[in-house]
Amino acid sequence: MKQISGSQMICEALKEEKVSVVFGYPGGAALNIYDEIYKQKYFKHILVRHEQAAVHAADAYARMSGEVGVAVVTSGPGFTNTITGLATAYSDSIPLVLISGQVANSLIGTDAFQEIDAVGISRPCVKHNYLVTHIEELPRVLKEAFYLARSGRKGPIHIDIPKDVSAILGHFDYSKELVMKTYKPTFKGNAKQIKKLAGLLKEAKRPLFYLGGGCIASNASESIRELVKLTQIPAVETLMALGTLRSDDKLNLKMAGMHGSYVANMALSECDLLVSVGARFDDRITGKTSEFAKQAKIVHIDIDPSSISKIINAHFPVVGDVEQVVSELLNELKKEKFIPQSKEWLEILKRYDSIYPLVYEDSDEVLKPQWVIKECAKLAPEARIITDVGQHQMWVAQFYPFNYPRQLATSGGQGAMGYSLPAALGAKLAVKEEVVINFAGDGGILMNIQELMTAYEYGIKTINIILNNAFLGMVRQWQSMFYNENFSETDLSLQPDFIKIAEGFGCKGYNIHTKKEFTKAFKEALKSDKSTLLNVVIDRFEDVLPMVPAGAAIYNMILPKLKDKK
Ligand SMILES: Cc1ncc(C[n+]2csc(CCOP(=O)(O)OP(=O)(O)O)c2C)c(N)n1
């Protein structure tokens, strides 16, 4: 068999894995790889302007497409710049492969220029990592990396490749069977457990589905919609699960947790059977764990056995892929001719929802962020939505009507500011003609604003909306509520000229103060062939409500004072 170089192997593997876009940034230790990237014709390479952006873009590409996202960087600082991106993808179980260059084998351990213990640093932020010291290992490692990224509980995989390994010739046999003795995820749920679960659903008086990111990851939305319809059992969604059910589904009680709806949090607190479907009981959902779903028998469906009973004790575990378990459960329920019993429970919940629906007080003097979000939904109802982190992220989660899975990409588990602009690029490359809207705060947008240049260079058109409160808004909110209004280092009233920034990067910018201005600019942005930056000046002191104070029980919500308002 003809021998090829390590760098050629990387490109061949990407071809075999049907990768169509790679995000990256070159440098000394990655030069061999980049020389090969220059010659290949299988995939498009996007030169971002910061390595963190490469990983966030690959991450959002994966979230939107369901494929594995890929990034390539150089050693040392090129690699360390990727850590926030890796941690973000790891927390949210997003499949991606990061390839980093490393100094040559002979230099490892010598404090060589741009040498860093990359696998040592990435270990806690990835599902698995490799330092490939011999060319013979490279084909297997590449193959395993893609398999691991997209199977079981998905996640980021890091491959560190010394410069000599990317140059040396070796045999590339990618067709070999993959044998991994110690890695065998369970996909199919235990049949007996599923039968018992069907029985529990039949007996429960106040059952509730608690849907998490696993519903999206395993493409289970259709089956879950069918399950909810058949059983007439209500459901709450985590931030990561938004879009699993349609937002207008009466049985969808919306997002639960710290900024969840009143009805969702009350349902969690009062249910007698809680069926967690691919959710991981994050502290932003559970609040005080000893008070969480106290009256309920807990069923925990998860592909990752180590997640089960990690935070909340599960009375009834089902290990398996969400889509497979839910399909099997549906078969069982249909076989037994399940009759919904939830009428009284639904009446109680309806009352909760009518007492405290998700509301905000609109104004004609100052723009309210919730109005802006709803206006976007009106003008572009099917758009893909990306958010950064902060108040705007929670308002989007509360007020944008998500209607299909993979409609939202947001940094959930890590809450990494700076995520959304590069993520919007990755998302747009995944969804092509669809509209991509990026909501960011005036703090977070500055963390990766250089990526407007990438957008311009490659003609990647996104609509970027800054919900500008001239504060690090979410932190300001906590300072208002819990720190005596000591606005320590959160005032951002000194503002850059966002229009000039946008124009400097070849994009179009707008300053917006009124509803009329917003609607006009947004319509123009939809039609524009350029990326746009809409700097929307909003009410400085608007809070995100409801809010469960950190560590409190989730039924102890700080609620908006207004009732029955839109
Ligand atoms: C990289 C990073 N640094 C700090 C934080 C802590 N943090 C969470 S929200 C927030 C404020 C965000 O402000 P802004 O981007 O203006 O958005 P807003 O809350 O006003 O919508 C901060 C500093 C974070 N999540 N990520």
UniProtKB/TrEMBL annotation:
<dbReference type="InterPro" id="IPR029061">
    <property type="entry name" value="THDP-binding"/>
</dbReference>
<dbReference type="InterPro" id="IPR045229">
    <property type="entry name" value="TPP_enz"/>
</dbReference>
<dbReference type="GO" id="GO:0003984">
    <property type="term" value="F:acetolactate synthase activity"/>
</dbReference>
<dbReference type="Pfam" id="PF00205">
    <property type="entry name" value="TPP_enzyme_M"/>
</dbReference>
<feature type="domain" description="Thiamine pyrophosphate enzyme N-terminal TPP-binding">
    <location>
        <begin position="5"/>
        <end position="120"/>
    </location>
</feature>
<dbReference type="InterPro" id="IPR039368">
    <property type="entry name" value="AHAS_TPP"/>
</dbReference>
<comment type="pathway">
    <text>Amino-acid biosynthesis; L-valine biosynthesis; L-valine from pyruvate: step 1/4.</text>
</comment>
<keyword id="KW-0460">Magnesium</keyword>
<dbReference type="Pfam" id="PF02775">
    <property type="entry name" value="TPP_enzyme_C"/>
</dbReference>
<keyword id="KW-0479">Metal-binding</keyword>
<protein>
    <recommendedName>
        <fullName>Acetolactate synthase</fullName>
        <ecNumber>2.2.1.6</ecNumber>
    </recommendedName>
</protein>
<feature type="domain" description="Thiamine pyrophosphate enzyme TPP-binding">
    <location>
        <begin position="388"/>
        <end position="536"/>
    </location>
</feature>
<dbReference type="InterPro" id="IPR029035">
    <property type="entry name" value="DHS-like_NAD/FAD-binding_dom"/>
</dbReference>
<dbReference type="GO" id="GO:0009097">
    <property type="term" value="P:isoleucine biosynthetic process"/>
</dbReference>
<dbReference type="InterPro" id="IPR012846">
    <property type="entry name" value="Acetolactate_synth_lsu"/>
</dbReference>
<dbReference type="InterPro" id="IPR012000">
    <property type="entry name" value="Thiamin_PyroP_enz_cen_dom"/>
</dbReference>
<dbReference type="GO" id="GO:0030976">
    <property type="term" value="F:thiamine pyrophosphate binding"/>
</dbReference>
<dbReference type="GO" id="GO:0005948">
    <property type="term" value="C:acetolactate synthase complex"/>
</dbReference>
<dbReference type="Pfam" id="PF02776">
    <property type="entry name" value="TPP_enzyme_N"/>
</dbReference>
<dbReference type="GO" id="GO:0050660">
    <property type="term" value="F:flavin adenine dinucleotide binding"/>
</dbReference>
<comment type="pathway">
    <text>Amino-acid biosynthesis; L-isoleucine biosynthesis; L-isoleucine from 2-oxobutanoate: step 1/4.</text>
</comment>
<keyword id="KW-0786">Thiamine pyrophosphate</keyword>
<feature type="domain" description="Thiamine pyrophosphate enzyme central">
    <location>
        <begin position="194"/>
        <end position="329"/>
    </location>
</feature>
<comment type="similarity">
    <text>Belongs to the TPP enzyme family.</text>
</comment>
<keyword id="KW-0808">Transferase</keyword>
<dbReference type="InterPro" id="IPR012001">
    <property type="entry name" value="Thiamin_PyroP_enz_TPP-bd_dom"/>
</dbReference>
<keyword id="KW-0028">Amino-acid biosynthesis</keyword>
<dbReference type="GO" id="GO:0009099">
    <property type="term" value="P:L-valine biosynthetic process"/>
</dbReference>
<dbReference type="InterPro" id="IPR011766">
    <property type="entry name" value="TPP_enzyme_TPP-bd"/>
</dbReference>
<keyword id="KW-0100">Branched-chain amino acid biosynthesis</keyword>
<dbReference type="GO" id="GO:0000287">
    <property type="term" value="F:magnesium ion binding"/>
</dbReference>
